[in-house]
What we know:
Blueprint: H1 2-43, H2 46-67, H3 78-137, H4 149-194
Helix pairs in contact: 1-3
Amino acid sequence: MAEAAEQALDDQAATLQQLRRDNEQIERENQLLEAFMLKAQQQGLTAQLEQQSTKKYRGARRKKEAEATVDTFQRLTDDEKGDIVSQAIEALQTEIEQLRSSGNKDVDDIRTLVEEVDLRIAETKKDTYEFKRDIIIGGEDPRTGKTNAEKVIRFLEDKVHDKEVLVEKMALKNTTYRAAIQKLEAQLAHKEEMGEVRA
């Protein structure tokens, strides 16, 4: 009698384990379906899926009405599960590619900023070295030990003049680029009028 009770207990334990495994499988399928439905809603695919399911449901409804079964939900077929998984994979791959491209753009932007900062640091170091050489060490009066104010003013005026020259060069480049852009836009408009440009 004890052996029969142990056997029944073992059978119940095995059944319980099998039910747990089945339940875990269904939970994974539900999570995948929920993720798919969420993505589908975001992408506007739900209307298409609902149309497909109503077509299937209408055909199945007539059969089920004749059978009058109590089962109120439809299980997904393996093909439907495969379609959902493949669409989820495609969506993830698309999302990964978008993240990769935006990440590459961010890396390029950061690299550009770092190069700009490095150029500014180099320019500042050069200016600091020149100031130290020309003003602090070279501009000191040997008799009094004081810095000559005229040399400081001349140094600063030279730096301001250099910046003004740079600004003038940049302004000239900008006007040149604007003229080139206007010329190209005029050519493009002319070609569009002539019908040479194809989208």
